[in-house]
């Protein structure tokens, strides 16, 4: 059963971004809600029991009545602004397609199975990554989550409420976590990081599918720059308090520190108020994303930025160095014929569940260019089919 031509293809026109080439499906926006509707339709077509949990995560259950803990698969549906078509939805569409394939072949599960779409994985709108899964495992307080604001000053609580998602019970869902026996997230490969055998990603390994070893430590920080708003054409340079000078200094310090410590650090989002070409800004803010194979390198980048610029970034999101369950990872790789096992520089809900002690691993589908978080993100249809086949093989080996 084709996943790209089938279920994933059904999202082709949902939430197309302003560029017309990518997708803008930020959490709890109309586009995200359309994707959530698609999830319900996929589940309905497979006669799965659907539920939305207290944190807005979507679940589609196959034989929830069976004894034992569940085999759970899935990913997320929200995107970054102008993101690609595969990051998130490929994992959800592949999970539904795997169930459809198993159903067609008269497979009978021996324990509960579920497809999950975690809410707000990208954190593109409210700033914190993996909100739905972090709330579920208790790694993010409901107070902090509900108070998160988007760039218009709207809160996550308002956005969820407006979307019809009650927020009064948002928070740790220990009972649900206890029901998860293992979680396998299928995801498009992002970048070409070296596999354990040193080959850089699935292209170098000449493999359509790999297994995730873990996730690099990474975090997000914010820096605010105060200024004095004034006229661009009438204020002498000496009389200015221009926040853009400090902002520019931090941007350059971030790149220099990343080079120094072999980290990946990015300033991808800035906010300048009022943002008029002929006004000296009254204030400005920037956000830093920093990652590395080693947490010390990440911490050194931030320490250098503080030392060199005198500005102190405020940490908004942190993901510790994450190793997926070694036994599950090795077993899945073995089921698939010893495919490459490789780390991920990208964060995932799988990382949140792994850090919460849930046996977790990932299936990564080859990305020819490695490009992601951009309209150019793509995976070959044949490789997506290999991904579904790998998920089916994993289920057959793990749920019998
Ligand atoms: O930012 C990340 O690494 C992921 O795509 N959320
Ligand atoms: Mn992403
Ligand atoms: Mn993702």
TrEMBL record:
<feature type="binding site">
    <location>
        <position position="291"/>
    </location>
    <ligand>
        <name>allantoate</name>
    </ligand>
</feature>
<feature type="binding site">
    <location>
        <position position="220"/>
    </location>
    <ligand>
        <name>allantoate</name>
    </ligand>
</feature>
<feature type="binding site">
    <location>
        <position position="87"/>
    </location>
    <ligand>
        <name>Zn(2+) 1</name>
    </ligand>
</feature>
<comment type="similarity">
    <text>Belongs to the peptidase M20 family.</text>
</comment>
<dbReference type="InterPro" id="IPR010158">
    <property type="entry name" value="Amidase_Cbmase"/>
</dbReference>
<dbReference type="GO" id="GO:0046872">
    <property type="term" value="F:metal ion binding"/>
</dbReference>
<feature type="binding site">
    <location>
        <position position="87"/>
    </location>
    <ligand>
        <name>Zn(2+) 2</name>
    </ligand>
</feature>
<keyword id="KW-0378">Hydrolase</keyword>
<feature type="binding site">
    <location>
        <position position="76"/>
    </location>
    <ligand>
        <name>Zn(2+) 1</name>
    </ligand>
</feature>
<protein>
    <submittedName>
        <fullName>Amidase, hydantoinase/carbamoylase family</fullName>
        <ecNumber>3.5.1.87</ecNumber>
    </submittedName>
</protein>
<dbReference type="InterPro" id="IPR002933">
    <property type="entry name" value="Peptidase_M20"/>
</dbReference>
<keyword id="KW-0479">Metal-binding</keyword>
<feature type="binding site">
    <location>
        <position position="373"/>
    </location>
    <ligand>
        <name>Zn(2+) 2</name>
    </ligand>
</feature>
<keyword id="KW-0862">Zinc</keyword>
<feature type="binding site">
    <location>
        <position position="278"/>
    </location>
    <ligand>
        <name>allantoate</name>
    </ligand>
</feature>
<feature type="binding site">
    <location>
        <position position="122"/>
    </location>
    <ligand>
        <name>Zn(2+) 2</name>
    </ligand>
</feature>
<dbReference type="InterPro" id="IPR036264">
    <property type="entry name" value="Bact_exopeptidase_dim_dom"/>
</dbReference>
<dbReference type="GO" id="GO:0016813">
    <property type="term" value="F:hydrolase activity, acting on carbon-nitrogen (but not peptide) bonds, in linear amidines"/>
</dbReference>
<feature type="binding site">
    <location>
        <position position="187"/>
    </location>
    <ligand>
        <name>Zn(2+) 1</name>
    </ligand>
</feature>
<dbReference type="Pfam" id="PF01546">
    <property type="entry name" value="Peptidase_M20"/>
</dbReference>
<dbReference type="GO" id="GO:0050538">
    <property type="term" value="F:N-carbamoyl-L-amino-acid hydrolase activity"/>
</dbReference>
């Amino acid at each position: 059963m084709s996943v790209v031509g089938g279920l994933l293809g059904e999202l082709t026109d949902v939430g197309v971004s302003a560029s017309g080439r990518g997708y803008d499906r930020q959490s709890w926006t109309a586009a995200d809600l359309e994707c959530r509707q698609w999830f319900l339709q996929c589940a309905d077509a497979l006669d799965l029991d659907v539920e939305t949990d207290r944190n807005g995560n979507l679940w589609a259950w196959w034989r929830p009545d069976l004894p034992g803990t569940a085999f759970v698969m899935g990913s997320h549906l929200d995107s970054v602004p102008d993101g690609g078509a595969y990051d998130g939805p490929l994992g959800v569409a592949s999970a539904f397609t795997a169930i459809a394939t198993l159903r067609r072949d008269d497979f009978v599960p021996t324990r509960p199975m579920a497809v999950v779409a975690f809410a707000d994985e990208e954190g593109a709108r409210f700033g914190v990554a993996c909100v739905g899964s972090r709330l579920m495992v208790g790694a993010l307080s409901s107070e902090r989550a509900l108070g998160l604001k988007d760039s218009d000053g709207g809160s996550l609580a308002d956005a969820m409420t407006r979307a019809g998602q009650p927020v009064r019970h948002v928070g740790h869902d220990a009972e649900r976590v206890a029901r998860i026996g293992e979680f396998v997230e299928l995801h498009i490969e992002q970048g070409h990081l070296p596999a354990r055998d040193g080959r850089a990603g699935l292209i170098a390994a000449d493999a359509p599918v790999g297994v995730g070893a873990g996730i690099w430590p990474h975090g997000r920080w914010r820096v605010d720059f105060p200024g004095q708003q004034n006229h661009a054409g009438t204020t002498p340079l000496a009389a200015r308090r221009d926040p853009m000078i400090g902002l520019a200094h931090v941007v350059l310090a971030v790149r220099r520190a990343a080079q120094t410590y072999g980290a990946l650090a990015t300033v991808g989002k800035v906010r300048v108020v009022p943002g008029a070409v002929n006004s000296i800004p009254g204030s400005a803010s920037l956000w830093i994303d920093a990652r590395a194979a080693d947490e010390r390198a990440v911490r050194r980048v931030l320490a250098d930025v503080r030392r060199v610029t005198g500005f102190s970034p405020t940490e908004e999101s942190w993901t510790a160095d994450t190793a997926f369950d070694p036994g599950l990872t090795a077993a899945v790789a073995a089921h698939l014929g010893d495919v490459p096992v490789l780390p991920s520089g990208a964060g995932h809900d799988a990382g949140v569940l792994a850090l919460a002690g849930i046996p977790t691993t990932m299936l990564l589908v080859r990305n020819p260019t490695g490009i992601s978080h951009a309209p150019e993100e793509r995976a070959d249809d044949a490789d997506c089919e290999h991904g579904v086949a790998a998920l089916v093989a994993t289920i057959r080996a793990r749920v019998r």
